[in-house]
Amino acid sequence: AQSVTQPDIHITVSEGASLELRCNYSYGATPYLFWYVQSPGQGLQLLLKYFSGDTLVQGIKGFEAEFKRSQSSFNLRKPSVHWSDAAEYFCAVGAHLTGNQFYFGTGTSLTVIP
Amino acid sequence: DADVTQTPRNRITKTGKRIMLECSQTKGHDRMYWYRQDPGLGLRLIYYSFDVKDINKGEISDGYSVSRQAQAKFSLSLESAIPNQTALYFCATTSGRNTGELFFGEGSRLTVL
Fold this sequence. Notes:
The complex is a heterodimer.
Chain A: E1 3-5, E2 10-14, E3 19-21, E4 24-26, E5 32-38, E6 44-50, E7 56-58, E8 64-68, E9 73-78, E10 87-95, E11 101-104, E12 108-113
Parallel strand pairs in A: 2-12
Antiparallel strand pairs in A: 1-4, 3-9, 5-6, 5-10, 7-8, 8-9, 10-11, 10-12
Chain B: E1 4-7, E2 10-13, E3 19-25, E4 31-38, E5 42-51, E6 54-57, E7 65-70, E8 73-78, E9 87-94, E10 103-104, E11 108-112
Parallel strand pairs in B: 2-11
Antiparallel strand pairs in B: 1-3, 3-8, 4-5, 4-9, 5-6, 7-8, 9-10, 9-11
């Protein structure tokens, strides 16, 4: 069965510090992986996605993520966090070729302190 | 204007009432989804539709029904609302021809008293 695990419910970082949000997935085929961000009162916005090729993908707002097949992970990183990055982050796995069913993790809430 | 529009954005209702949440999109996508978001549970799929004649249950469809009135419109109904259906509901769309990115509406917050 497909599943996505985000082990960290809540993370607090200082502005300017680096950030890594963890995501592990369970999927029977080649995964299509996504990170979405949800700002307060807003819908979800795509940060980045991985389908194939280079395992390090770049996204918007200075985020990047690395796909590690051996670890079934797709961790999100940012070298220097800004106060505006405070939001909820969701990792998702999808099956483009088998019907676009998407499975989401439970989310990680990020707080940024000055 | 938003590409994916949900109405109403907020609704308070009473137990037993019928509620409809509506979603319309201008992206020309064929695939539409309804998700429910609860704190600590992430997003869970209620129903999805790949075209007007194709409706599929998601992981938590009990107590909900949907209607795909047109390619651009996908409505979610609660025939008899109950308090544990209090949640934030999202509509999302994607194209079967693209790389799978979901485009979300801004959400409909439903409170059932």
